[in-house]
Amino acid sequence: MSLVAALFENLLEFLPITVVEEHEIGVYLRWGRYKKSVEPGGYRTVWPAEKIIAVNAQAQDLPITDMHMVLGNDKVWAIDAAIAYTIDNAYRYMLATREPDELLTTAAKSAVLSYKGNNRIVDNTSEVEEEIYGVLDDMVEMWGIAILRFKFVTIAPCKVFVIRGGTSPPLLPTYED
Q1: What phi and psi values does residue 2 have, to the nearest 5 degrees?
Q2: Comparing C-alpha atoms, which of 164, 154, 160, 165 is closest to residue 176?
Q3: Cα(112)–Cα(145) distance, rounded to whole angstroms?
Q4: What's the CA gap between 96 and 172, in Å, rounded?
């Protein structure tokens, strides 16, 4: 029996080790199906049956730019914001998207631009930030993402120029001097 145990122990040394770093969450797959999430550490896997995919779970900041909105005074305003997020459920996150920044940017722009009572964006930014934070967090929860913070960076009126000529392009906003 000791010969079999020794052979098995030597065989284990040849199995690949997957390391999940301290700032990551590992997703353990067996035959391509989710089995569990794993904590940071080293794991031996039997290829091709098992695989561990590490997902970065550190808090990350993402700037949201190029939003333009007509507010109550019929002026076009340029709005830039920033969000901080982290991965809450690595498996859902892994299935949701290959481009998380693009997904979060679209969700954040949607949350801001669909905000009701948009006159308050200029006057009561902290209250509006809290409301948009709640909406955005609810939107992205199903993708395994948790929003930590939403903050307006710039809210500035724009000048609007119309280029006259043969065919007119859409309105081109620029920042006021």
Answers
A1: -70, -30
A2: 160
A3: 18
A4: 34
Provide the pLDDT confidence category of residue 120 given band limits of 50, 70 and 90: low
DSSP H helical ranges for 13-150: 90-96, 100-113, 120-123, 125-140
pTM over 0.70: yes
Same domain, 78 and 8: no
Give the CATH number, domain containing residue 133.
3.30.479.30
87 and 23 together in one domain: no
E strand or H helix at 46, and its extent? Answer: none
Q: 173 or 15: whose pLDDT is higher?
A: 15
Q: Are residues 43 and 87 in the same domain?
A: no
Residues 34 and 76 in one domain: no
pLDDT the model gives residue 163: 44
Same domain, 164 and 82: yes
| Segment 17-73, tens digit of pLDDT | 888 889 888 899 998 888 888 999 988 888 888 888 888 889 999 999 888 877 766
Q: Rounded CA gap, 38 and 44, in Å?
A: 12
Per the structure, the complete domain to which residue 21 belongs is given by 2-56
At 142, give phi and psi (nearest 5°): -65, -15
Same domain for 6 and 74, yes or no, is: no
- Report helix, strand or coil for 82: strand
